[in-house]
C-alpha cells in the first residue's frame, strides 16, 4: 500500500516536472509595436499625416521605463502639428497595451519610405537598455496629384456600397404598403354596389 | 443442407469483394492566390526561398499577435492583419526575406485549403539583442466556409548568408462571413417571421370571436318596417305598384 502511494507520487512529480519544463519560456517581456500612418487631404489642399503607434507586451514579465522615439520624419519634409514624436511611460505589464499618436503636416511632395520607431525599455534581469523596433510603414505618396472627382462619383460609391440593402428594404416596405392600404378600384366597386 | 451451402457461398462472395472496394476520398484543395501588398523592391533571389523548408536558427524567437483581435476572427474576403514579433538573441544581425502562410483543415494538415501570398521584404533586418515587429496582411477567399481552420505561418530569414525558417504560428483561426447585419436573407427572414406572427395572431383572434359568438344567446334583431310586405296591403291591389313588384319577382 505504501509502495503504491509512493509510486503514484513519483509519477505525479515527474509529470509536474516535465510540464514545468515544457512551459518554461524566457521570463522576459516581448514588445510588439504596431505603427500606422494614414494620409488625409484637407479642403485647403494641404495634407496631414496621422501616425499612431500601439505597443503591446506579449511577454511574461513587466517592462520598465518604456520610451518611444520616432525619428523617421525629417524636419524638411514634415511639420509637427499636434502631439510629440517621443513619449515615455513608467511600465508596461504583461498583456498590456500603450498607445500614442501624433499628427504631421506634409511640406514636400514625393514618395516617403518611413523607418520603424524605436522603443527602449529595461528589464530587471539585465542592466543594458533593451531595444525593440515597431513595424515599418507602407510607402506614402505625399501630396500626390489626384485627378478631379467626376460629377457623380460620390453617388456611385454610395450606391455600390448600400445599393443592395436599400433595394431589399424598399421592396419589403412597398409590399407591406400594398397589402395594408385598400386599392382605389375595389373602393369604387363597393360604392357602385351600394347604389 | 442446400441452404447452408448457399449461405456459405454468399458470404464467400462478399468476402472476395473486399479488396475490390474503393473508399471514396474527398479532396478539398482550393488554391487561390490573393494579391497582397509588397514593402519595397523585390530581391532577385527571393524565388529560391519561397516554398522551401529550412530549419529554425537557435538564437531566434518568434511570436504571433493579432492586434485588437484576440479571438483570431478572420472575415472571409476581407483584409486581416497580424503582427510577427522577432527577437534576435544571437550576435549577428538577421535579415528577413519573406513571411508566408497557408490555411489547412484543422484535422488533417495535408489538406491544403489556401496558400496565402508571401510578403517579401527587401531591407528588413533585426540587429542582435533587439526585438522587431513585422506586419503581415492577408485576405482569405470570400467563398470559404465559416468554420475553424488551421493557419500555419512561417518566416524565412538569413543569418550570415545562410537561410533559416521559423514557424511563428501553427494554430486555429475562426473564419466568419463578412457582411453587415442588413442583407437580403436577414431582411426576408425577419419579414417572414413578423408576418407569420401576425397571421397567428389573426387566427387566434378569429377563434376567440367564434367561441364568444357560440356562447352568446341569439339576440333579437330589430328589422323595422322591412318585415311588412307591401303587397299585403289590399288598397294597393290592382295598382301599378303591384304589377311592377310581380315583374321584379319574376326577374329574380
Automatic annotation (TrEMBL), chain A:
Major location category of this protein: endoplasmic reticulum
Pfam families the record matches: TRAP_beta
Signal peptide: 1-24
Transmembrane segments: 162-180
Keywords per UniProt: Endoplasmic reticulum, Glycoprotein, Membrane, Signal, Transmembrane, Transmembrane helix
Domain of life: Eukaryota
Location within or outside the cell: Endoplasmic reticulum membrane
Membrane topology: Single-pass type I membrane protein
GO cellular component, one term: endoplasmic reticulum membrane
Family, as annotated: Belongs to the TRAP-beta family.
The protein's name in its UniProt record: Translocon-associated protein subunit beta
Organism: Gossypium hirsutum (Upland cotton)
UniProt gene name: LOC107948528
UniProtKB/TrEMBL annotation, chain B:
Membrane association type: Single-pass type I membrane protein
Transmembrane segments: 186-204
Keyword Membrane: yes
GO cellular component, one term: endoplasmic reticulum
Intracellular or extracellular location(s): Endoplasmic reticulum membrane
Chain coiled-coil ranges: none
Residues of the signal peptide: 1-26
Domain of life of the organism encoding this protein: Eukaryota
InterPro entries on file: TRAP_alpha
Pfam families: TRAP_alpha (PF03896)
Record keywords: Calcium, Endoplasmic reticulum, Membrane, Signal, Transmembrane, Transmembrane helix
Comment, domains: Shows a remarkable charge distribution with the N-terminus being highly negatively charged, and the cytoplasmic C-terminus positively charged.
Subunit structure: Heterotetramer of TRAP-alpha, TRAP-beta, TRAP-delta and TRAP-gamma.
Function: TRAP proteins are part of a complex whose function is to bind calcium to the ER membrane and thereby regulate the retention of ER resident proteins. May be involved in the recycling of the translocation apparatus after completion of the translocation process or may function as a membrane-bound chaperone facilitating folding of translocated proteins.
Family stated for the protein in its record: Belongs to the TRAP-alpha family.
UniProt name for this protein: Translocon-associated protein subunit alpha
Organism of origin: Gossypium hirsutum (Upland cotton)
Lineage: Eukaryota, Viridiplantae, Streptophyta, Embryophyta, Tracheophyta
Gene encoding the protein: LOC107939135
